[in-house]
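Forwarding these from the shared drive since the link keeps breaking.
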Amino acid sequence: MLDYLKSFHNINTYLILSIILLFLVLALDYF
């Protein structure tokens, strides 16, 4: 169960990082 939560947390972290990168790219394109 703990391993499952750990992997889920890792997936969430990667998801948040990819969303932040996407916003950065969009902001650079906008400016």
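-- next protein --
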Amino acid sequence: MRPDLDYREPEPGALMISALAGTPATALAAAQLLEPEFGPIDCCSFWLSFAHSRYYEAEMGRGLGRYLLFFQRPFLRSRLIDAKLFSDQLEIRLAAAGRRRVNLDPGYLALDHLVLASTKAVPHRPYLGRGIYADLTLVFESGQYIPLRWSYPDYAGDYVRELCGEVRKKILRRRRQGDWR
């Protein structure tokens, strides 16, 4: 092995979990169950209507919405698989009559991008392991997060991108204070 190689973990990101449900109360109840595993929620989006897709309606009903939850603790990017597996198990625990009541999709926000975890294989998602793929959704360029051609419409929208920008500012502030490791 070359002595000059230095394999370091990249700087942590902020764990983000999308909590999609039929009501805000259902999503928030699930959010509370995430905190023992991932720590306190630092930032929560407005309730966002999930009107751009009918993908979940057969299982979860109509009129879905979501919160984007950003967690306070620095998140090691290498734990994305574990976060996805944990959230999937929580979905199963909260299911009623074999149907999910909430869909929990984790990702992480780094200073230079937003990555979501997925179980769906498509060409732009590299395989991470244990059935989980990485979905590069936003990249930070020219002072803002910008969508990619495959980004989901709600993540590509101004509100989510601006929210990510605000969380990025918090990360930078905490980093300057020595509180982001």
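The first helix runs from residue 24 to 38. The mean pLDDT is 96.

- D.
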